[in-house]
Amino acid sequence: MGAMKRKSQVGLSLLSENWQKDITYFSFCIRRQKCKVKLYMIPYKAIARRWAFKRSASVGSLEVDAADQGHRFASGFSAPNDFVRYNMLHDSSSNPLDGMSDFERQLQEFFDELKAMIMMGNKHDAIDLLQANYEAVKEQMNAGTKGIEEIAILDVIALGYMGIGDLKFVQSLLDMMSQVVDNLKDDEPLLDAILMHMGSMYSTLENHEKSMLLYQRAINILEKRYGKNSIFLVTSLLGMAKVLGSIGRATRAIEFYHRVITIFELNRGAESVDLVLPLSGLGNQLIKEGKATDAENVFTRILKIYTRAYGENDGRVGMALCSLAHAKCAKGNTDEAIDLYKKAVKVIKDSNYMALDDSIMENIRIDLAELLHFVGRGQEGRELLEECLLITEKHKGKEHPDSVTHLLNLASSYSRSKNFVEAERILRMSLEIMTKNVGPDDQSISFPMLHLGVTLYHLNQDEEAEKFVLEAVRIREKAFGKDSLPVGEALDCLVCIQTRLGKDDAQLLELLKRVLSIQEREFGSDSEEVMLTLKKAVFYLDKLGRKDEKFPLQKRLYHLRMKYKQRVQY
Question: pTM, whole model, 2 decimals?
Answer without folding.
Answer: 0.76
